[in-house]
Structures are given as structure tokens and as C-alpha cells.
Amino acid sequence: MTAWFDLHDGWTLAATPHEGALAEPAATLHGAGGLTATVPGCVHTDLLDHGLIEDPYLDDNETRLGWIGRTDWSYTRSLSAEVAALAGDTPAERVDLVCEGLDTFATVRVGDREVGRTANMHRSYRFDVTEALGEAGASPGLEVRFDAPYRRAEAERDRLGPVPAAYDEPYQYVRKMACNFGWDWGPTVVTSGIWRPIRLHAWSTARLASVRPLVSVSADGSRGRVSLRLNVERTEAGNDTVLTVNASVAGVTGTVTIPAGEDEIALDLEVNDPDLWWPRGHGGQPLYDLSVELSAPGVVLDTWERRIGFRDVAVHSAPDEHGAAFAVRVNGRDILVRGANWIPDDTFPSRLDRARYTEAIDQACGAGMNLLRVWGGGIYEADDFYDVCSERGVLVWQDFLFACAAYPEDEPLWSEVEAEARDAVVRLSPHASLAVWCGNNENIWGHEDWGWKEKLAGRSWGAGYYLDLLPRVVAELDPTRPYWPGSPYSEGEGVHPNDPAHGTMHLWDVWNELDYTVYRDRRPRFAAEFGYQAPANHATLRAAVSDDPLTPTSPGVLHHQKAIDGNGKLARGLALHFGDREWSYDDWHYLTQVNQARALTVGIEHFRSTWPYCTGTVVWQINDCWPVTSWAAVDGAGRRKPLWYVLRRVYADRVATVQPVDDGLTVVLGNDTDTEWVTELTVTRRDIATGSELAASSHPVRVAPRGALRVPVPEEVSRSGEPGGEVITVDGADERAWWFFARDHEIAYRKPEFEVETRVIGSDLRVKVRAGVLLRDLVLNVDRIAPDAVVDSALVTLLPGEEHTFTVHGGADLDPGKVSASPVLRCVNDTLVASL
Known about the structure:
The chain starts with a strand and ends with a helix. It is an alpha+beta fold.
């Protein structure tokens, strides 16, 4: 027989004593007895559900919850019903407890017997509980007891000695989600719990221990091959049994036998003329059902099913006259990567489900993205994440889970890392979307530049993982995909890991030290991280912070700013572009979001304009895990910040941008489609006050498929005698491109004048704005009056006499007077000439 029993109900949670005194809150809980627990889940969410703690996302509540990570916890339930179900005429030969995710240091007991221990949040465990169930009788209990993660991590730090890291937390000593310990965008909430499904598996004779479909495509795309690599596990009674494996995909079937006593086998399936899987924008995303069946004479023992895609993926990193390239290559084509970094979408990832993944990934697609990089300080996401990416045509760059620290290579950490890597590669490799394995985030760079060498004094720091262990695991288990040692990383002896002319580059000097216009001076081959901060949307911030009034420096607002001198860096950016002055909360909130959007516009447009020299941009970051001031385009409540809307523009299939070249200007057209782009550009220098034409030129253009074209702007158009009073527009290339000659505080904006007309259509509200003067970066902040409403556009610039219609989805009942008044409807003009 084979049967699965989900163990998601009937759990009780309790704080348990350990050596040393319990913190007072935990002692109180221990004395009160157990609480009903949700599995999958974690201690924080259970305590929150019972009203025993305040929401850690609100105000500064997180600071009072540190005791949870310093407390031992126990989850218990009865297995009586499962034992009764297992009893029958033909009982299973083996019963396993399958734990897909235990966070982190668990001792597992069935009845009076210890059946296993865990020390890694990032891997699954399978424990044989057959004898333990037999000993426990008809009413066995299951206990999963978690040691306090801080105590275990700090003990390892004491044993191994301190090693450098970005934060003064012991995250690099344990295999646990690093950002659990806080980050420059995340709270410190150190969790324990059964965070992924837990089940009993009853089976006999043999089971499929692992199935690895190695998918490849011939050079001409006419043949697809699935090389199945299978491992089976046998019971003692099953060792003498000849097993049969049947597999099928795309109408092709294959059969192979596994001789008695053997546990590994290979089976190849070849498909003629498969429909190839492509990243979005390059073709379709056909997925084929692959099924595997394990049987013994007369009985099916186990089955395995996944959806796969036929495609070839590689990293092109050949040396050239500039240095060394880095390009993600799919089916022989270099892909212009339009991507973002992805962090866990919730500080408590057990709360994530397929619907939430779908919503977030659809937001990435809506912004024109074709790649998400799963960052190394988080988790290997649930299969639902990779499934949805495969369906949508979103490539996944998967970091192994190392970030911003030196990692000891001592035992038992080394063995845990290897087990984790093998677990992750086997689980994730069937997904068509998975394109790149990457060894770490910023650790090779940190070792080179952040003073680690002196502090380490020759001790190990992780190089053995990134340059030896991990590439060996990938080569053995998933040779169809490329491995890249780190990000940033440059191939070649003696080359700096963050050399812009080689490999992948992270650009953080702009946010930390410089004006965002400096992006135009940088020439990365592949920009894998860069970003600029802004606060969460007002409704998100208001719901998370009880300060009255909200100000840029009120306590709750500052608590939801985790970056070192984050508000100071925001203020520096405002001063450079809007003048050095005291801003009201409304102006500060609006202008910092404008600055964030402009910074990423400048960077992405410039990097994209150098295609194919620079083959991709992966902005930091698409999402947030809680309400916070951060680099995200979508805030922790799932609301789109203005940045999201400009990403949609600069990540469009076809774009036009104005770039300074030498002493002049050049219009660069990017065409990331398979069709030639034929159009006529009109480049016009205009008077800002009236919008009238001062000089113009027309340019018939043809842009090759997947190509770029540079069109120099004639001097009579590109030269301005009045930088603060003139602007350039580029029309004829889908969305208009702009070039302002001066910074905002130097521009002669006029007091905003406009007419507003509203109209209800179904559940939506249409808001038409007609400009009386040039209006720059017009937004409709509907979340201020309707938190659930969504507007279709933002940061719209209009010339005098032009109009734009915003559609507010779900806004039919809004008060037109409130919609058309500040701070809901506003533009840059409001902030700089409001007193006129």
C-alpha cells in the first residue's frame, strides 16, 4: 500500500523551559498551557492569531518581541487517527514522517522515541517512524520541539569565533532565512515553527526517492530530450523485487526495469518538434505534463508528476575587447533582461500561497519584467512561485542562500549546506522558469572590499561553497543550467568581482553617496543590483504607523526606515533636485517617490541604451515583506508605488530615451521585439511656459528586431539658451520621451492650472485632467481616500492644452471633489510654486 496523511490539524503550541531562565512573556505562556496552532505556520503568527502579541508590523512592536526567538517552543498533536487508518489487512512495510520545512532546530519525537533532529530551515527531512509508531500503541503523540534559534546561533558564533557580516546578528552561523534577523528593509522577527507541510507517508516495497528530469533541446530546436535520472528507496522486503518505471511526456512513453537490489536508473525520452518554452516577449510558454510511475509486478507503488518546458538556457560570458560579457541565453538567443530582485513576500513566508504569488508575479509582468532574481538572504520559494513564473514566462535567477557575510565552512555547517543544496536543486530543477543558479549575494565582493580579510586572518569565509561545493552539486544534479559563483562576480584571475567591464555588477554608490544622474557615467555589462528608496504608499504607511501627525521624522515613520541614514540619503536627493528646504509630510512623501522613480528611469534608460554591451538590468527590488521605506516598486501591502509605473515605461518592448553624448544629445530607440520598428521621430525644443515650439527636427527611422538605434539630435534642437525655461519632447516612438535641461528647483514651473472631469463607468471612475500649463509628474494618489482602489497610470507630464485620463479601478463611489484636490491629485508644480 501507499498512502499520505496530512498532519495540518490538531496541533498545540507551548513555550517550553530550557537551561537558563525563560523571558517573562514566555514563562507566562508556559504556565497557561498550550495554544491551538496553525500548521504550516510559525510561533509569531500563532501568538498573533490568539491576540497574545501585537502585530509586529505596526509601529515599533517588533522591538518588544525579541523574546520569541530566545524561547524554546513545542508543537504537539495526537497520531491516533492516523494509526487507526494505517491498521488494516495489509499494513504498510514502512511509515515515514515527511517534513518539508522545519524552522529550524527541531527535535522530533513519536511517543517516547526520538526519531530525528533538524538544523536547517531550507531543506526537507524524512524520518522512518515505523518502529516508533509500533512502540507507542494506539494513541501515539507527535512532538516537534524547537530550540531557541538565537541560543543555537550564538553558541555556534562562540564556538567558531566572530566573522564579518553586514549586520551584528548571527545569521551566517545557521541555515535559516538570513533576513529573519533583520535587514535594511526588514524587521527583526526570529521565527520558529513548522513552516511548510508535514505528512505521514506509508509505503511498501519501494518509492521514488528523487526524480530529476534533465531537459535539453537540439541546436536547431527540432528535438527535445528528457533524460530522467531516478533514485528509489526500498524496504528490506523490497530489495529482491524487480521494479519497473514507466514515463511519458508529449505523447512519448518509455519503460525501464530496475534490477533487484539496485536503486538508480536512467531513462531518456525524445520528443520531435516540441513547442519551445520562451521568456515572455520572445515566444510562448508551452508546458508539457511529465509523469513517472514506479511499479512492482501487479501493483503501482509510486507516481510523480510535473510540468516541464523544452528550452535551453546558458550564460554567455566570453571575453571581448571591452572585458567579459554576461548574457542570459535562452534557445541560443541573448535575452535583454528586464528584471527585479525578489525578497520573501512576507516576513512570515508560511502565509504565502499560490494566489499571493500569482498576484505579485503578475505585478512584475505588468511592469514589463521577464526575470526575477530570488535573493540569497531569503528562502528557496515554494513550488507555486516557480510554477507561476513558468506559466508567465518569467525567468528565475536563483541564489543559493548566502548573503552579505563571511560564512564558516566548518562542520556541521558544511554538511548542512551540501544537503540543502542537493535538496534545492532536485526540487527546483523541473521548473522551466529556473534559468541560473548563483552561489551567493555580495560575499565575494565583501571579501575583496569590505575589510573582511584582516578580520578573518586566514579563516574560511565561504569561498569553498561558491567555488567548489555548489558548482559540483549543480554539475552533478542539474548540468542543463549554468552556475555563476556570485553576484557581483567577474570571471578571470585578478579581476575585481565588481568590475563594470566584466560579468555582473552591483551599483550602490549612487544611493549611498552620489546623485542618481551619475548612473549615466556607469557602464556595467549586466546591472544585477541598483536602486533608490522611497516610502511605502500613504495608505500602507498610515495603516502601519499610529503617529499623529505623520512626519518624515515621527517615531513610527523612522522605525519603518531600516537603512543606515536612509532618511538622510532621501533628504540629500531632494536637496539636489528640489532645493534644500523643510518639506511638509505630503510634499516629502510625494517628492521622495518621484525621486525614486526618476532615479531608476535614469539608470535603466542609460543601461538599456548601451545594448548589447549591457544585456540586462535587475533593479533592487520589486517587492516588500512588510510596510517600510525601501527600494521596492510594490509596497508591503501590495500597492504599486509610482516607481512601478515608470518601470512599465522603461521596460516596455519599445522605448525611446534621450541620452547626453559628449556635448550633445542623442535619442536612443530600443526595440525588444521580433519585428522591425518603423516610425518617424519628431524632436522638439519647447518653451516650458507656453509649450510652443522653438526648434524641431524629423527623423524617419527603422530599428532592427532586438536592436537599438542612436539618432543624434541636431544642435539647433539640442542647445538651449534658457535651461530653466525649455524642454525637449520626442514624439512618434510610442510613449513620449522628455529631456529637461535643468533640475527642478531651477525650472520656471508655473502654478498648476488644470480642469478635471470625472465620469463613472461600471465600478470604475475616469478622471480626465486637461492642463492649462505644463504639469510635471502628475499623480492621482487615490489610496489616500480609497485604500483598495487602483489607478492605471502615474507620473504623467502634460504640455499646456494636453489631457490625460486616469482610470481608477473600483473608484465609482469616490467623491469627485476629493479626487481632484491635493494631496490626491498633484504634480511637481504644487511643491515648488504653491506659494505663488
